[in-house]
Amino acid sequence: MELLEVMRKRRSVRKFEDVDIDNSIITDILESAKLAPETDTCNYYFGVIEDKKVKNEISSVTLWAQWVSKAPVIIACCCDISWDIGEQNDDDYGVIGNKLRYGEDIVNFLRKHENRKACKTLVQSTPVYIAAQHIILTAVSHNLRGCLVDFIDIEKINKILGLPEHITCQLLVPIGYADETPEQKRSKNRDDMIFYDKWE
User: Pairing between strand 44-49 and 73-80?
Assistant: First the structure.
């Protein structure tokens, strides 16, 4: 499939057929995840969850997403949170860049807050979404479907997966062959999503 065709076919699916996914497809999906850009301070790791007991444990600590246990495979998208913005000098690129983006008050709060693991998890929360999108699109190219699930109890999932202290699960991508047909996106003028040079 051409990339744009894959993107057009992508829909969030929460019901899956009870059909195993071939290992060669899983390998292809993981290869696409590894191709996602990483930051200088954040490396990715991917868990392939197929064990029913583990999937049930994971599903019990999601927000209204118990259906993930029915997916043939759950990809746990994890990242390294060793880098701590609270340990960096004021002239550190990450400190300066985050102040530029979010403002000094927010960054100072994150640098001083006592729950260091939560702050490090928050600072590193967005880059791995690029890898998750690679996973979803590659799954669609193999006629699979999935959904991003990120309202999760991160600490409990970290324990379920036995992750070391410096690695955290940021989101889940359950995938499988769809057992539902999501509604087509409503037809609307998509041109209002785009502007050139200035919003007018």
Answer: antiparallel
